[in-house]
């Protein structure tokens, strides 16, 4: 037996602890660089003006996959992009389109859109923004290899040219009144032609014209931004820096906010909205217009090729109960049009068009000869905003005699299942790309990403969507889109359930932030955010 | 001994090759596309196809397999398909963060577990023993996520002496770093401590009734010396073995602890990578974890051989 005294035992334990300390030393080598302490100081502004300085700590629901300015992987990652880059246009605090890099903008004729750039805009490397950068950026987004999120919306631009160093002209194959929405979207950002052509990797580095520039990114730990002193908007930004910390767990994120570990968080879960609203030290900025849940059908699979069956499912969902159970009432039951009133004034006409009516649903199933229909419905357990409503609709579906078997899958597995149409029904949640009925094309147009998952194609809807894009008269446009919504309610390729309340929460000392009720989920308000006091 | 170490290291290389091969093929069997993960939900099928091309996912599988091993043998763990960053840029610090948690938890578990096990054994069938045995059952049966959440609730909200803090390095803020270490380390150490307590107690009860201990007592050796020099020393052999096993369990336990406490370790890196089907990162993390587990087992076996020469003879 070898000698082992108490001393050597304690020494061995200490050695383990020593190894732990060594690990801490190694870990210190790859962890965030702190901004200087002086950056935390907040200097009060003159009466009625924002204070300057300070660092905003932001708990982010998703760690952004990468920085590519043209590939959006969600609203959370868009915050980071929009602080470092600018678009030609942007949505203001009310969701109205306004200029960003563009000083003047508009259609000169139905097929030509002209943008005049602001003067004195500089990239983070000090080089000036020119019309060539805009032309390059739009062409990069149109390039299939980029796989840009806005590419389908910019496909109608057949030519983009620089008239002079400050003027860009976009020529369209056919009129598209929704183009300004596309130009204001978070991933429609302008990059430096010279920078990209120099071989820089825009996935891992950042170099835009935005109010903040990247200091450091440690995936899973933090992304640190500091103030860009030569930003073109006078006085902006007010903050010295922003530190984004990924906090994927909903409870951990809300706890961090309540304990003031972070100043602000995104994506407040419905289960915590009341807690936040009751706390006098916190504020909640949200909308009930974008994020919604739906049940999609594969129209190529029996018996869902029969509209009576699809309608029976739609009428079997007690949307009010789903809203109460899944989101504790924080949202709106969708028993009419897909577009909300704030985007489409016609929405009120459709209120109650898809009621909860189990008797009628049973009758439709009887007519279709599938009484007591049994079917699997796939959903994802990775996101509570999708999974909770899917679970909550089961009791009402069953009370209509539908035996729906919910199959929860991990996110990418679910995506593969839906794309490959492995299930006849799926429960999903998403949001319109922008706050205008033209965004219906994604869901209903025969080339729309989601319409393909329903195996849905309707020549009449395609014709109306095309007409809607070309029609400049606002009331006439709305009539066209109302026709599309009406036809959708007749054909039921998918049925929407509830529109959830979604927003950001922050401490009351965080000022200047607004969550636009329409336009798009956008992070541009963070450019104008300031701190009333040091944390 | 050196021959033994060389043989074990050779075996370790084979084990790593097998693990790497299994992981390479297994993760590609899981449905889901990294190209889609990198593009977000609005990507069209054409865009996903273009991204797959750019990520070289359309190349023959065996070509990808040999490419992976070829790069690995040159010390290149590849580049993340999603973030575009070299895996080696993030892996060392994330691994070190996890090891810091695990090793500290293990050190505490060993120190306290052996101490409590000794007390329980020397007070067998008395109230202290019952209390410690009962307490250890509690520690073993409570899942890590329950202990972690309870600790967070108690010490963050009810008795707010450890409010949640942002992750800070020991360099930037040593005291702050220590503060954020406390709860995750206690959470991890709980179950391991309970196991070591029970193992020490059981082993000591056996040694305390052994002939050589009775002989020592008959020779008039003081009871304290009997316990410390004769009973505990022998009892520690199985404790060392179980400690090795506990270390690997602790590494598994970090998945939940890192999530609850927002600790940027290797488990959260792996979780994210699996969710995004980021093959190079998954492969690298699994290989790194397997290396740690294999090395720990080797060190544990060597420690047992040193402590108990009978194992060498057998």
SSE order and pairing:
The complex is a heterodimer of chains A (535) and B (314).
Chain A: H1 6-29, E1 42-43, E2 52-53, E3 55-60, H2 75-84, E4 89-91, E5 97-99, E6 102-109, E7 112-117, H3 131-142, H4 151-154, E8 157-164, E9 167-172, H5 179-184, H6 193-197, E10 212-218, E11 222-227, E12 241-246, H7 250-258, E13 264-265, H8 270-278, E14 282-287, E15 292-297, H9 307-315, H10 319-327, E16 331-333, H11 358-368, E17 374-380, H12 384-392, H13 394-399, E18 403-409, H14 411-419, E19 425-430, H15 441-444, H16 449-453, H17 459-470, H18 474-491, E20 494-500, E21 502-507, E22 510-511, E23 530-531
Parallel strand pairs in A: 3-12, 3-13, 17-18, 17-19
Antiparallel strand pairs in A: 1-2, 4-5, 6-7, 7-9, 8-9, 10-11, 11-12, 13-21, 14-21, 15-19, 15-20, 16-20, 22-23
Chain B: H1 2-29, H2 34-39, H3 45-54, H4 61-73, H5 87-122, H6 127-141, H7 144-158, H8 174-208, H9 211-218, H10 223-261, H11 266-276, H12 279-307, H13 309-313
Helix pairs in contact in B: 1-12, 5-6, 5-8, 5-10, 6-8, 7-8, 7-10, 8-10, 9-10, 10-11, 10-12, 11-12
Summarize the structure.
The complex is a heterodimer of chains A (about 525) and B (about 325). Chain A is built from 18 helices and 23 strands.
Polypeptide structure, described:
The complex is a heterodimer of chains A (535) and B (314). With 535 residues, chain A is α+β, with helices and mostly antiparallel strands. Helices cover 32% and strands 22% of the residues of chain A. Chain A is built from 18 helices and 23 strands. In chain A, the strands form six sheets. Chain A has a seven-stranded mixed sheet, sandwiched between helices. In chain A, strand 6 and strand 7 form a beta hairpin. The longest helix of chain A is centred in the N-terminal third of the chain and has 24 residues, at 6-29. The termini of chain A are far apart. The model of chain A has no long low-confidence stretch (mean pLDDT 90). Chain B is mostly helical and 314 residues long. Chain B is 80% helix and 0% strand. The relative contact order of chain B is 0.14. Classes of the chains: A alpha+beta (535), B mainly alpha (314). At the A-B interface, helix 1, helix 7 and helix 14 of A face helix 2, helix 3, helix 5, helix 10 and helix 11 of B.
């Amino acid at each position: 037996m070898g000698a082992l005294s108490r001393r050597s035992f304690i020494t061995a334990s200490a050695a383990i602890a020593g190894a732990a300390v060594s690990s801490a030393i190694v870990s210190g080598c790859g962890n965030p660089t702190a901004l200087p302490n002086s950056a935390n100081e907040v200097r009060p502004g003159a009466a009625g003006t924002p204070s300057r300085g300070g660092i905003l700590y932001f708990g982010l629901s998703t760690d952004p996959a990468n920085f590519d300015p043209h590939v959006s992987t969600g609203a959370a990652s868009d915050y980071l992009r929009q602080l470092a880059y600018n678009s030609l246009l942007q949505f203001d605090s009310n969701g109205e389109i306004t200029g960003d890099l563009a000083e003047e903008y508009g259609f000169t004729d139905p097929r030509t859109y002209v943008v005049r750039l602001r003067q004195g805009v500089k990239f983070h490397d000090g080089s000036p923004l020119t019309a060539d950068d805009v032309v390059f950026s739009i062409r990069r987004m149109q390039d299939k290899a980029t796989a840009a999120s806005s590419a389908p919306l910019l496909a109608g631009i057949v030519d983009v040219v620089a008239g002079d160093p400050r003027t860009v002209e976009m020529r369209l194959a056919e009129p598209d009144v929704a183009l300004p929405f596309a130009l204001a979207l978070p991933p429609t950002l302008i990059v430096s032609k010279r920078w990209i052509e120099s071989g820089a990797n825009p996935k891992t580095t950042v170099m835009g014209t935005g109010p903040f520039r990247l200091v450091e990114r440690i995936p899973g730990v933090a992304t640190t931004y500091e103030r860009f002193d030569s930003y073109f908007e006078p006085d902006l930004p007010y903050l010295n820096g922003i530190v984004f910390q990924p906090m994927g767990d909903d409870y951990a994120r809300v706890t961090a906010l309540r304990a003031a570990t972070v100043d602000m968080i995104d994506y407040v879960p419905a289960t915590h909205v009341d807690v936040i609203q009751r706390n006098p030290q916190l504020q909640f900025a949200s909308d009930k217009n974008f994020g919604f849940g739906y049940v999609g059908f594969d129209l190529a699979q029996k018996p869902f090729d029969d509209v009576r069956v699809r309608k029976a499912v739609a009428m079997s969902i007690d949307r009010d109960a789903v809203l109460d159970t899944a989101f504790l009432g924080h949202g709106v039951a969708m028993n009419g049009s897909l577009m909300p009133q704030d985007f489409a004034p016609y929405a009120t006409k459709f209120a109650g068009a898809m009621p909860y009516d189990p008797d009628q649903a049973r009758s439709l199933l009887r007519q279709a000869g599938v009484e007591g229909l049994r079917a699997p419905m796939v959903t994802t357990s990775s996101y509570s905003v999708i999974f909770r409503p899917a679970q909550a609709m089961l009791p009402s579906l069953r009370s209509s005699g539908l035996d729906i078997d919910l199959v929860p899958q991990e996110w990418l597995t679910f995506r593969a299942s839906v794309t490959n149409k492995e299930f006849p029904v799926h429960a999903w949640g998403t949001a319109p790309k922008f706050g205008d009925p033209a965004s219906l094309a994604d869901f209903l147009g025969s080339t729309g990403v989601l319409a393909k998952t329903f195996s849905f194609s309707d020549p009449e809807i395609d014709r109306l969507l095309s007409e809607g894009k070309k029609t400049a008269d606002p009331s006439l446009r709305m009539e066209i889109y109302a026709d599309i919504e009406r036809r959708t309610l007749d054909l039921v390729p998918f049925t929407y359930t509830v529109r959830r309340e979604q927003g950001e929460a922050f401490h009351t000392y965080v000022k200047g932030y607004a969550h636009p009720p329409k336009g798009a989920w956008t992070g541009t308000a963070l450019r104008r955010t300031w701190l009333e006091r040091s944390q | 001994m050196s021959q033994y170490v060389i043989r074990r290291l050779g075996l370790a290389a084979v084990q790593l090759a097998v693990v790497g091969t299994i992981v390479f093929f297994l993760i590609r069997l899981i449905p889901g596309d990294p190209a889609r993960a990198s593009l977000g939900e609005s990507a069209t099928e054409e865009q996903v196809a273009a991204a797959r091309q750019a990520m070289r996912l359309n190349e023959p599988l065996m070509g990808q397999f040999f490419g992976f091993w070829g790069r690995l043998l040159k010390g290149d763990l590849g580049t993340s398909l999603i973030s575009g960053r070299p895996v080696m840029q993030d892996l060392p610090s994330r691994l070190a963060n996890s090891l810091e948690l695990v090793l500290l938890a293990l050190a505490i578990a060993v120190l306290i577990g052996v101490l409590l096990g000794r007390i329980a054994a020397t007070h067998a069938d008395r109230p202290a023993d019952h209390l410690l045995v009962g307490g250890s059952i509690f520690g073993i049966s409570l899942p890590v996520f329950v202990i972690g959440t309870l600790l967070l609730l108690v010490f963050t909200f009810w008795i707010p002496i450890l409010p949640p803090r942002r992750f800070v390095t020991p360099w930037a803020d040593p005291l702050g770093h220590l503060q954020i270490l406390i709860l995750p380390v206690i959470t991890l150490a709980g179950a391991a401590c309970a196991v070591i307590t029970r193992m020490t107690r059981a082993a000591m009860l056996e040694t305390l009734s052994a002939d050589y201990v009775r002989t020592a007592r008959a020779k008039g050796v003081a009871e304290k010396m009997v316990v410390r020099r004769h009973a505990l020393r022998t009892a520690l052999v199985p404790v060392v073995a179980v400690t090795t096993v506990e270390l690997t369990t602790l590494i598994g336990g970090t998945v939940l602890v890192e999530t609850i406490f927002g600790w940027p370790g290797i488990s959260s890196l792996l979780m994210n990578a699996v969710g995004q089907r980021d093959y190079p990162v998954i492969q690298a993390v699994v290989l790194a974890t397997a290396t740690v587990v294999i090395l720990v087992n080797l060190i544990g076996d060597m420690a047992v051989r040193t402590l108990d020469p009978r194992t060498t003879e057998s």
